[in-house]
Design a protein that fits this description.
Layout (H helix, E strand, L loop, with lengths): L3 E7 L2 E9 L4 E3 L2 E2 H4 L3 H13 L6 E8 L3 H19 L4 H4 L32
Parallel strand pairs: 3-5
Antiparallel strand pairs: 1-2, 2-5, 3-4
Helix pairs in contact: 2-3
C-alpha cells in the first residue's frame, strides 16, 4: 500500500494527513499525538476514526496541522483521518458516516460589525 494523502478543515485549522501501513505511530508536527494534544478529549478525537473502524495500530499516520486553536486542529485531524480511511477501504464509510465523522463542521466566527462592540453585542442605548 502506498501513502494516502488527504486534508481536513475546521474553522481556520487545516490538517494534511499521510497514512501508510505500519505499526500505529501517529505524529503531529513531528511530535507524538499525546504530546501535541495534552487533553484526553482531543486525544480521543484523533484516534476516534481508527477505533470506530478497528484499525488502531495498523497504520502509521504523519500529520501537518496549521492555524486555528487546539480543538479546531483536533477536529480537522479527525476529519482528515476519516477521509483517508475511506480512501483506503470504502467499506469504512458505513461505520464513519452515521457518527458524522465525514462531515466538515462549517461553523465559523461571525465577523464584528462597525458601530458595535462585538459581532452581535451593541453599545448601551441611551434615550436621553
Amino acid at each position: 500500500m502506498e501513502v494516502t494523502n488527504t486534508s481536513g478543515r475546521r474553522k481556520t485549522a487545516v490538517a494534511r494527513v499521510y497514512v501508510k501501513a505500519g505499526n500505529g505511530d501517529i505524529l503531529i508536527n513531528n511530535k507524538p499525538y499525546d504530546q501535541y494534544f495534552t487533553t484526553l478529549v482531543n486525544q480521543f478525537k484523533v484516534v476516534q476514526p481508527l477505533q470506530m473502524t478497528d484499525n488502531v495500530g495498523k497504520y502509521d499516520i504523519k500529520i501537518n496541522v496549521d492555524g486555528g486553536g487546539v480543538t479546531g486542529q483536533a477536529e480537522a485531524v479527525r476529519l482528515a483521518i476519516s477521509k483517508s480511511l475511506c480512501e483506503i477501504n470504502p467499506e469504512f464509510r458505513l461505520a464513519l458516516k452515521p457518527i458524522g465523522l465525514l462531515r466538515r463542521d462549517d461553523r465559523m466566527v461571525e465577523r464584528k460589525k462597525p458601530g458595535q462592540k462585538k459581532a452581535r453585542k451593541r453599545f448601551q442605548f441611551s434615550k436621553r
